[in-house]
Amino acid sequence: MGRFVLVVGGLLALSTALWADTALITVEAGKPGPRLNPRMYGIFLEEINHGVDGGLYAELIRNRGFEDAKPPEGFTLRDGRWMAGNYDAGFARFGYFTNGLPFWKLVREGGAEGSMNLETNLPLNAASPRSCRLEIGKVAGGRLGIANSGFWGIGVKEGGKFNLSFFARCADGFAGTLTATLENTDGSVCAGPVEVKGVSNDWQQFNCSLLATKPEPKARFVLTAGSKGTVWFDLVSLFPADTFKQRPNGLRRDLAEMLAALKPGFVRFPGGCVVEGGTVETAFDWKKSVGPLEAREEQWGPWNYRETHGMGFYEYLQFCEDIGSEPLYVGFCGETCFFRHLSDVPMDQMGWVATNFLDAVEFANGDASTPWGSLRARSGHATPFNLKLIEVGNEGHSRNFPPRYKLVHSLLKEKHPELSYINDLSFQRREWVAGEGSDLEDNHFYNSPQWFMNNTHLYDTRDRKLPPVYDGEVAVTSGEGGPLKGNLIAALGEGAFLMGLERNADVVKMVSYAPLLANVRGRTDWHGMIYFDPTRAFGTVSYYLWRLFSENRPDYTVQTSVEFKADKPDDIAGGIGVGTWEGAAEFKDIRVESEGQTAVAPDPSQGVAGWSQEGGNWSVVDGVWRQSDDAVGLLYLSGTTWTNCTFTLKARKLHGPEGFLIVFGHKGGDKYWWNIGGWGNREHAIEFNQTSVGEHVPGSVEANRWYDLKVEIAGRRIRCFLDGQLIHDVTAPSSDHFFALAGRDEARGELVLKAINTSARPVAAKLNILGVAGVAPEETLTVLKSENLPDNNSLDQPEKVAPVVSRSSGAASQFNQEFAPRSLTVLRFKVN
Fold first, then answer.
1. What 3-state DSSP class applies to 15?
2. Residue 788 — pLDDT band, cuts 50, 70, 90?
3. Coil, helix or strand for 458?
4. Burial 475-511 (b: 16+ CB within 10 A, else e)
5. What integer pLDDT is reported at residue 8 of this predicted model?
6. Virtual CA dihedral for 425, 678, 704, 598, nearest 10 degrees?
7. Nearest to 474 by CA among 449, 502, 454
8. Packed helices 371-379 and 351-365: angle between N→C axes, nearest 10 degrees
9. What dihedral do alpha carbons 138, 139, 141, 145 form, nearest 10°?
10. Which of 62, 64, 616, 716 is in the most buried spot, having the most CB atoms within 10 Å?
11. Taking the CA of residue 238 as centre, how many other CA atoms within 13 Å lie in the half-sphere pointing to its CB?
């Protein structure tokens, strides 16, 4: 996968057609900008979307340890749901159930008799307290055993080899053989059969191999018994022999190779929300993830399924070494996930939290004579891994997090001053940890393509005295791409933002996309950069864009200016809506007029039919639309688009700390809104994707009073009236849709120019290269584009939108270049 197409031809000259958009790009090669961190572009690898278990980690058996019926740790059962506070573990979401053997089925064919049950007596060990008990009453004339279909099917390719291992013991006179096969949906064998003998009264491990004789994308594994009696099974494990780097307990080779192709400078692991958990008991503890597999304690994860820890701390470090990346370990710092059930380890009990960090460093970097370093050596890696980067906690959200951060950070800094420490400030205030700094500040950005384009200059004015930045989680999350999110416009929006990070590389040292992997059947409502099923995988357009940025990272940027002239800025256009921000409110008399005529006047007697909801608790009560919770809640009139219109309505605040939102220009994930009584009911303002448009105006709203509201939209001009009084009169700035940045690749003696054009029109650009003695006549042009911004790749079309490379001649210090519609272009040429 992922091969770039190479085309050889002449220089792309300007068409003789009339161009709608033009640009002058001036590259001043003699004015260097900041140097980029050679490891600037990395990856963030979290167990989400069944991206590790059921994905990158090559284990093919689901619930191999028979622990999946165990309730989520730290949760209580209320009204049939496993809850931590008000957070629902979603226990049944992916097929889990209690007091049984999820994902295993009894095979009983012909005249065979018997049963399969969960066993909790005489366990294999304390870390694996549950096993499967197979009672065989009769096998003559039939077949009795257990079957597992893995993670939505086991992928089998003809000639493939599979390594099987399992623990077993027996009683009640069992003296037969066990037979292992892989079978297709009609029951015919596609790998095996292999017989296993010698099962005794004591637990022992058995190992064998199965050879595939025909392909099957959704096979199941079957293990049958050959005589009467009782057999117990535990840790039934099946791996493809062909793993990444041919490692036992290894990784799925195609997915690992796709990650390696990104050439990540670092790997952030294991989370994310996985680090924090939904309860303290489900927070990530690396000590449960090392040592022999049978000694690793499985645990419920915050993405509503159990984590095997098969890909544990050691395997993450090994993977980083295998692909030449720096490991960046994120550890639990005493506060659980705010978005689930926020709780804190008491300060007088934080000792084990801090010790876990110190012991993790010893495991990764300690001499083989140290306790944890010796475990690493026994695991197969005698020399240290040389861990240098540690993130202390993930998204600490409350005022209780800073003292926990300070405690852990100070102990680490005292013991290991040679390491670099990262603090996540996505939901904190810097002054909360002013007395305890960090070497890097982590920020997380999930938003729409337009937000990322609008924020390409986010760090231009950052105070350079502050610690440098790591943007650890960056991705478009506004719904682009349908069920499998991600498409061309999402990637181009991210690319415009990445240009801003390169331009500010003196303060932005690292960046990574999130989430990375997604099983097409195991998604947790989040997207992925790489999707897969049991046998296939594809990278989204974002995968190729981020790969191109990594491969074409210059050593330093050079001053680049763009004089861009669009044919005509786009008018504000889109649907309407109403909403609240931390408050409850009612709305009525909603009307949109266009060209003097009523375009729509929805009837409240129809309820909320025809509307789409985003948060809150919406209903129609006494002829008005009501959002009754003190919450963020939005209600959009579906399937509507207006421009040059007037939007009128009445609104009344019921309760809560703020007023209400009037939405217009709603299109995809983008929207304008008039925020009335926002910021603690102190100000009114117009916002685009929560970025202010124009000035804030002091003002508040009273509860239980109806207000007359009017929004007039003319082109890009917005006028807002409150009870007949003009409150705002602003012209929304047109959004840029052409971006360019150049830099110097010293090793290759080349200038690297990246340009993004999100418009449906091509851009006719004149390139003026200053500060060079000469430009070689050859250039390499790489273009990532498609006909439509919603286009994306798929399992059936994995390279529908992929880079195309061409080599041309004719470059000079001044030349013309066409930048295709809806595209990323990377232009490289040698200069003296």
1. coil
2. confident
3. coil
4. bbbbebbeebbbbbbbbbbbbbbbbbbbbbbbbbbbb
5. 32
6. -120
7. 449
8. 50
9. 130
10. 64
11. 30
- pLDDT classification of 13: cutoffs 50, 70, 90: very low
Provide mean pLDDT across the span 95-124.
95
Alpha-carbon torsion, ordered 689, 44, 328, 68, to 10 deg:
120
Chain mean pLDDT for the chain: 92
- List strand residue ranges (DSSP E) for 603-749, in order: 611-614, 618-621, 624-637, 645-655, 660-667, 670-677, 683-688, 691-698, 706-714, 717-722, 725-731, 738-745
Q: Which two tokens stand for residue 726?
A: 């003009």
CB proximity list for 479: less than 8 A, separation 6 or greater:
485, 668, 669
User: How far apart are the C-alpha atoms of 396 and 336, rounded to whole Å?
Assistant: 8
> Which residue is associated with the tokens 């573990």?
89
CB atoms within 10 A of CB 172: 10
According to DSSP, the β-strands at 611-614 and 814-819 are: unpaired
Burial 653-676 (b: 16+ CB within 10 A, else e): bbebebbbbbbbbbeebbbbbbbb
Residue 583: exposure state from Cβ atoms within 10 A (0-12, 13-18, ≥19):
buried
Strand partners of residue 752: 743, 828
Up-side HSE of residue 370: CA atoms within 13 Å toward CB?
Answer: 16
Tokens (6 digits) for 327: 């490991």
Cα separation of 637 and 214, whole Å?
A: 53
Query: What contacts 95, CB < 8 A, 6 or more positions away?
Result: 102, 103
Contact 24, 822 (CB under 8 A): no
Closest listed residue to residue 303, CA positions, set 512, 42, 39, 514 = 514
Confidence check: pLDDT of 4 > 90: no
What is the reported pTM? Answer: 0.84
Angle separating helix axes 253-261 and 313-322, nearest 10 degrees: 60
The dihedral built from the CA positions of residue 643, 673, 634 and 523, taken in this order, carries a sign that is: positive
Q: Which two tokens stand for residue 760?
A: 């449906």
How many Cα atoms within 13 Å fall on the side-chain side of residue 450? 19
Count other Cβ atoms within 10 Å, centred on residue 749: 12
Q: What are phi and psi of 675, to 5 degrees?
A: -95, 110
Phi, psi of 495 (to 5 degrees): -65, -40
Cβ-Cβ contacts under 8 Å for 474 (sequence gap 6 or more): 444, 445, 446, 494, 497, 511, 512, 513, 514
3-state secondary structure of 269: strand
Q: What is the largest CA-CA distance in the chain?
A: 91
Q: Which of 548, 526, 540 is nearest to 51 (CA)?
A: 526
Q: Which two tokens mark 663?
A: 């939405």
Angle at 374 between CA 372 and CA 377, to 5 degrees: 115
CB 665 within 8 A of CB 713: yes
Separation of alpha carbons 623 and 605, rounded Å: 7
What percent of the chain lies above the pLDDT cut of 90? 80
Please name the amino acid found at residue 598. Answer: T
- Residues constituting the chain: 832
Task: Tell me the CB-side half-sphere exposure of residue 390, using CA atoms within 13 A.
Answer: 30
Residue 209, phi then psi, degrees to nearest 5: -130, 145
The pLDDT value recorded for residue 484 is 74
Identify the burial level of 768 via C-beta atoms within 10 angstroms of its C-beta, where 0-12 means exposed, 13-18 middle and 19 or more buried. Answer: middle
Q: Which residues of 18-53 are buried (b: 16+ CB within 10 A; e: fewer)?
A: ebbbbbebbbbbeebbeebbebbbbbbbbbbbbbbb
Alpha-carbon span 21 to 338, nearest angstrom: 46
Question: What is the CB neighbour count within 10 angstroms for residue 638?
Answer: 13
CA 177 to chain centre: 45
Residue 432 has pLDDT above 90, yes or no: no
